[in-house]
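At this stage, I put together one protein's amino acid sequence and its backbone structure tokens, which the following lines show:
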Amino acid sequence: MKLTRMLPASCLLLSLMIPQALLAQKPASSESPSYYNIGGVLSNNESESHFGTVIAHLNFDQQYVPRGTTYYDKTIRIDKNPIKTALNVCKHLISRRVYAVVVSHEPTGDLSPAAVSYTSGFYQIPVIGISSREAAFSDKNIHVSFLRTVPPYYHQADVWLEILSHFGYTKVIIIHSSDTDGRAVLGRFQTTSQTNYDDIDVRATVESIVEFEPKLDSFSSYLMDMKTAQSRVYLLYASQEDAYVIFRDAAIHNMTEYGHIWIVTEQALSANNTPTGIIGLKLNNAENETDHIKDAIYILASAIKEMTVNETITEAPKDCDDSGVIWESGKRLFGYLKTRNIRGETGQVAFDDNGDRMYAEYDVINVHENHSFVKVGSFYYESEKRKMRLKINDSSITWPGNTGKKPEGIMIPTHLKVLTIEEKPFVYARKLLDDEIDCADDEVVCPHFNITNGNEQEYCCKGYCIDLLKALAQRINFTYDLALSPDGQFGHYQLKNHTTGIGTTVKKEWNGLIGELVAERADLIVAPLTINPERAEFIEFSKPFKYQGITILEKKPSRSSTLVSFLQPFSNTLWILVMVSVHVVALVLYLLDRFSPFGRFKLSSNDGTEEDALNLSSAIWFAWGVLLNSGIGEGTPRSFSARVLGMVWAGFAMIIVASYTANLAAFLVLERPKTKLTGINDARLRNTMENLTCATVKGSSVDMYFRRQVELSNMYRTMEANNYDTAEQAIQDVKDGKLMAFIWDSSRLEYEASKDCELVTAGELFGRSGYGVGLQKASPWTDAVTLAILDFHESGFMESLDKEWIFHGNVQQCEQFEKTPNTLGLKNMAGVFILVGAGIVGGIGLIIIEVVYKKHQIKKQKKMEIARHAADKWRGTIEKRKTLRASLAMQRQYNVGLNSVSKSVSQNSEKTRYPILPPLPRTPERAWPKDKEYIVSRKSTSAGKPPPRYMPTYATDVSHLIV
């Protein structure tokens, strides 16, 4: 491979990835090779000589080299120019079939070791670094076959965490350069802190991250920002040159005096102006190249020996032009190398998945006066427990300010930024009007900064939590600025990918109040903030200032008053039995009175008539009258047996009416329906139906509770689509009947139920928890706030807040309202009025029918009467004619035989027997107007009696017949 001109290193690396010719590799033998060439790219003659010596001794060590196997050394000198180094690797190492390459570190940079890694890695030849510590070599996408016997710089973050845990510092500020190694240190610190330190009380958290560009001129602006933070523990990763500038400016701002703690890495420790009291790290055997060479060779021999036992090793590539096929044995050999774990000259040698050295040992260095470095501890491998251990002699440490007293590591501010959120009755927020200058005396200014549009509006806050905040500030002596939640949320998290120097991790990103506290933009949260495990992982909580749980709010179901509400006291079956009983008793009364020998008796009247027995109609009337408690004036039973049954029926009616009256009061007056739901275990909630909607607030603690509960997953999937942004909207929808069940904190729902007696909480509390004050992790105010809250509970202050803000005395009013009978309205008794109206209409209808029927009967009677009168007239006319003929015949007969009788005598007799009446008009019915019978008939007619049907014959010539 010939080059006509010098190319940049990056171009060389790309050219090495694409060989000029790809030739087929010759078939591998069925057995592993009997000899192995080990390549070395070393920095000096001493290292090359030692490399050959170690391999020569290795061949006589049967523990690592079996019989029949021989190792040979092939070394070259590392060059400053990475292109020349890469060409030499191809020309002098790969061409001699090296099975692995040991590479040293060129003093001026990492380009040459990187060139060796690129070249060898393309052919899958393992490369063992003995001095390269940059984070870039951990990326296996680039350095595919590189591993090292020295740890990368960013592994010092593991020792940092052990030192912080030893001294009890839980809040730090990390200062790092904005390069690959600097970001890798930060990522390693955060990942290891969350992974290896389960106890959140002792876990170190990062309060602030200061990232600077390398080769800086001044660090003063960063230091001014750091002064406003609480933490006084600074973790520094910087080069020797950058550390010099940082220490210089820190001394100017008095940040290297007592109260400040600096923990730095190896590079920063080597600065010429390291202040007194700084704690740094120093890697053991970091510059002992000969020991690392020996460990690298013996690790390689151990891996080859194990590999030959398990599988066949093929021959390595012979030159850079004969590499068409990747050397699979080299790839597997790299896997065997990563599993090594031996005790070497530099300590316990093992590798992680990235091929980086594990179990590296460090000395803990403390800078004393006159810039003297003193070892005060060590980070070493403990063989018995097979883990790393930190040991520090605290008494030998000199802290900044040249004192032996350990600083607190934190500055406790007395002016805090407090956040809250509008949640009645705990916090009432009202917008400050334009004509108002300041809030009222019982209110506190609480501006709201809208993160959406960047506008800030002035609000005034009061309530339960505001009074609690005032009491806390007075008790533990701090001042505060109060503000509302920027996005109006309590806070929930979302899982998002986060890229660090060592890879991609998934992090929980919080919003709302929790997000502000996690991002350390606030010091305190005084709000109805529920304590739960998800939040407690990221923030601190005080002891609960109010204990509560989760409950269900719903609107009291109003009893539907139908037109037959008055029939509710009895069941349908009982009503039917009563109706049947009335008619059965009436029938039996009728039969008893009918067949009883004592069912008739004489009335005390002059005519001597008797009263008839009880008929069926009267019996029914009697039975209904007794049942309906109406007076019975007539139609009562007359026999003894019937009257006994009547008494029994009267007792039955009394019991039925009394029971109906009592039950009617229970149904329509005293009873108040409570709730539709029995609680969270109600089957209608667990298997939510279409007509039952339930919801909570998105991202709230209640929402998190349902996510945690596996048995409520079916219910949560249904209600998730109905969840609201705020509790206010949900409560209003419950009042309007749009939402049937709202699941929320019991304190708020009990307040709403006490304020509006139409609302009620259903079932018992579940998911019991408490409201706590939220603080930052490792906040110095946590203990003080907790002790103050406990004291408030004992003194009765919290109880007074409950009475003042939550209940308002409305609970007693609602309880009294529950005990007060309902006032019956028209809709309750409408059926009775409709029944009366139906009776009136029915009576009117019946009377109309009776009138029509009576008219029909009268008309029929008139027709019959006319016919009867016509027949009587005809019959009278016939009789008159017969009588007249008979009279004429008799007169003629008497006139013939009795002519001797004097006419005067006859006339006198006639006048004597029949006085003369005044003339009357003749009618067809009366042929003889002077007849006595006619006179009687007139009297009878005037008395209302009909006239006689016929009259006797009257003759003037029969006076001789009178005696």
Observations:
- The two ends are 194 Å apart (CA to CA).
